[in-house]
Structures are given as C-alpha cells and as structure tokens.
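Example complex used in Figure S2.
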Amino acid sequence: MSLPNLQIACDHSDLPTALADITKVGDVVDIIEAGTILMLQVGEYAVKCFRALYPDKKIVADTKCADAGGTVAKNCSEAGANWMTCICSATIPTMIAAAKEIEEIQVELYGDWTYENAQQWLDAGITQAIYHQSRDALFAGETWGEKDLKRVKKLIDMGMKVSVTGGLSVETLKLFEGIDVHTFITGRGITAASDPKKAALDFKAEIKRIWG
Amino acid sequence: MSLPNLQIACDHSDLPTALADITKVGDVVDIIEAGTILMLQVGEYAVKCFRALYPDKKIVADTKCADAGGTVAKNCSEAGANWMTCICSATIPTMIAAAKEIEEIQVELYGDWTYENAQQWLDAGITQAIYHQSRDALFAGETWGEKDLKRVKKLIDMGMKVSVTGGLSVETLKLFEGIDVHTFITGRGITAASDPKKAALDFKAEIKRIWG
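Predicted assembly (424 residues):
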C-alpha cells in the first residue's frame, strides 16, 4: 500500500484569498486543486497562478467537465494543469476527448453512477475517480459511513485510483485505514484552520502514521 | 403552445471573440448564454460583460454546477445572470441550495438520468431542463432521433420547461414541430454562419413559422 497524497482544494470565490491561503501550505501538500467555484469566477488564471507559484507540483483543474472534453482539457493543459476532472455523467466520448489533451482525467462521482459505468471508464483508459461526499449533502447532515467505504474499496478493487473528499479532518482519516486511498482532498479542513500550515503537516503526519 | 425562445451559447475559449460574436446577434436572440468553456476560461467576466452589453436580456450562466450550489449561484447572480445550469447528477440539496440564490435553475441532462430524477427535480421546485445532444456524441456520429423527441415530450408532459441543444440548424427545427419546446439553444449554428445576424433571424423566422 503506497502513501496517499494530500491535495488542497482551493474553492474560493476570488483569486486573492485563494493565493493567500495556498501560499501558506503549497510547499507541504502534494497536489494543488483549482476548485470549480474558483475557476467559474476567475477562469484559467487560477491554474496559471498556481502553476507559476508551484512549478513542480501536480495541479488539478476541477472543471467537472460534462461536455466538450477536448476543448476544456486543451485549455486546462495549456494553462498548466496536469489533471482535470470530468463529471461521472459525461459521456465516454467526452472523457476520451479530454484524455487526449491532458495528462490524466479524474471522474467525479456524484449521483447515481454504477460499477458498470466505472468499468466503462476503465475500459476507456480512465483510471482515476474522486469519491465525493457532496458539500451540500454534508450540510444536509449526511456523513462518511460504511456504505461509502465499501464503494471506495470496490472501485479500488476494480483497478481505479480513488481520491476521497468531503468533510475530511485529521480525525476522520483513520476511517480509511486498510484502504489503498490514492489521495485525500481537503479545502477548509486546512484553509479554515487557525494555523493552516500546521493543519497540512498534521494531515501528512496522520497519513504517514496510518499508511507509512 | 407558446413561441419557443432562441438562445445563443457562447462557448468560446476567450472573451474577445465571444464579445465579437455576441454583439452581432445579441439584439436578435432572446437569451444569451455564457458557456461552460468560456466561464472556465474567463470566469465571471463572461456574465458581467454580457450583462453590461445587454441589460434587458435573460442571461444564463452555464456552470453545469455539481456541488456547492449556493455559492456558485450567488456568484452567478451577483455577476448578473438570471438563470444557471446544474448537472443532472448534482444532488437535490445542491439544486435547492442553488435555487435559493438565483432566479431559476436549469438541469442539464447528460448520461443516465431517469424520469424518477425528473420528478424529484419538479418536487424540489426545479422546472427547467436542458435536453442536450452531447457535442462529443455528435462528433461520434450520433444525432437527433425519435428516442430524443420522445424523451423531450415526456419531460414536457411531466411539467418541465425543456430547452433543447446540440447540433441544431434552421433545418432541424421542424423535427420538433408539435412539441412545446421552451428554448432552442445554438452556438455555432449561428456564430459559425457566414452572416450570423441573418442566421439568427432565420432561426427566429422558422420558429415563428412553425410555432407562431
């Protein structure tokens, strides 16, 4: 079992606060994500600024692309992104078109996706998925449970590299013990902490303690 | 049966060419859409510029929002959008959160949505849907067929206002004769024409001929 990555999601509504937050922890985390909210507000500048600040980090454009995969992926790649997300309800041709234009595609799992879908993604060469506890679902009182963990395990058993996100804290990481999680993604779990750098280091230390 | 609207989709990768195209036809069309590609490239500026140029038109932010509906909708509304799209795989809490912050939500239909989903959207007060022939599916050789028209009719019968989009031309409008389509959405069907204003007027005339 390899050490899961730590990814910071920048879901700010403006670039200045995103930059202020990311520069506190950019050196600590493994992957930096330009969140959907941020990209819809400031466009490719989010990716371009992150790339300029962190030339050697993996950068994800969380476009949740549903269509025109080729164009969106080309734009993201040119802006400096390594990976880009597609929504699970995108068609296979959309995902394939996107995959041709950028290093890797990650499928964002929302709503009623099936393992049959997952097999189609794998067959199309898409090997990354993001298991997402919806922020709004979390607000509505739902949380990580055995059902979620079973789904994550099943996807990993099928051969997918699975990132998990949604309401994660240092304390919740141990829920995933024994599961070969690819990446833990958190936003405010780090940025909203009183000491974001310490929070990022705490995440890394707990990941190392459990999976190291 | 009321007269369907004509909506122009601006799916450009940069703002200058979007503005050059939109100003040719903005006065003719009923609804102006800041496309997903454009918003991911230039952010809220797309909506802000369209609102500044066309203070009295309906403006749609095609965010295909999958999560954080409240934040995305608030941002779009503040930028000047009337309507915003959510992807069909977004959770109901996401759609409800979005609907609280903007005039109307439109559900973008991709992948394996069901009529049971549609009923849930209606029950949540979401009454607009966009039936979308995927651009990549069109590239892969798929086109409008009887199956699509039946689905559009069924959604309308359920009580949804349905916009249709994907590979539409003046010639294909008559396929929808007898169907109470809410809005026809086209991008390059107008912008790629040798005379975009004439193309927009031709669309309007054909809509009036069939539904007037």
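Chain B touches chain A through 47 residues (CB under 8 Å). Chain B has one domain: 5-211.
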